[in-house]
Amino acid sequence: MDLPGIEIRPLKQMTGEAEFDEVFFTDVHLPAANLLGPLHGGWGVGMAVLTSERGHIGTSVIGLERRLESMARLAEGRDLSAIERQQLAALISKGSSYKAMAQRQGPIASTAASLMKLGITEMMFETSMLRGDLAGMDATLDGPDAFGMLAAPGGRIAGGTSQVQRNIIGERLLGLPREPKA
User: Core-most of 108, 127, 133, 168, by most CB within 10 Å?
Assistant: First the structure.
């Protein structure tokens, strides 16, 4: 990534971090010895990397499980509304389901990994938002609750956006027709 003509621009997030980049290639000449895969086969290599990344998303279940346990402790002894209780119970139930799916799948990359990626990242987003609701005004202070809410949208982008995951699931798992090209 240090060849002449490659420009990397970090994208600053709401958290102040820059986990994502824009990468521009202008008249880049790559020596043949540095090719990954066949000539003009970069798309396939990129897709294999993303599929592998999604295959390992199951490790996120551990962090998710810790967040849910922390939320349950935060909720103890508090007068939660019926909706908050329902949301918390639904998230804990989903978390158990994703943990079982991750254990069953293991780190094997497959199209089914898109189900895990979509489910876990959407659930992490919901968990961060509910955690913020349960923390109340404290969630607006500089700390883990505020950071979690600010970082949550990034999970929907990393490894392929949630919409891309829905397209993969629809086309490859459900056999639906491809989305029309713009």
Answer: 127
Find the domain containing 149 and state its range: 51-173
> Among the ranges 6-10, 71-75, 95-99, which has the highest mean pLDDT value?
6-10
On whether the CB atoms of residues 88 and 71 are closer than 8 A, the answer is: yes
Query: What is the sign, positive or negative, of the torsion defined by CA atoms of 9, 152, 59, 109?
Result: negative
44 — phi, psi (to 5°)? -65, -40
Q: Which two tokens stand for residue 64?
A: 């998710």
Q: Please choose, from the candidates 57, 93, 77, 80, the residue with its C-alpha nearest in 3D space to the C-alpha of residue 131.
A: 80
Residue 19 lies in a domain: yes
The whole-angstrom separation of Cα 52 and Cα 171 is 19
CATH number at residue 157: 1.20.140.10
**Predicted pLDDT of residue 155:** 82
Quick check: 115 and 51 in contact, CB under 8 A? Answer: no
Q: CA-CA distance, 177 to 110, in Å (whole number)?
A: 20
Domain shared by 76 and 146, yes or no:
yes
Q: Judge if pTM exceeds 0.85.
A: no
> 32-78, pLDDT tens digit by residue?
888 888 888 888 888 777 777 666 665 667 677 888 888 888 788 88
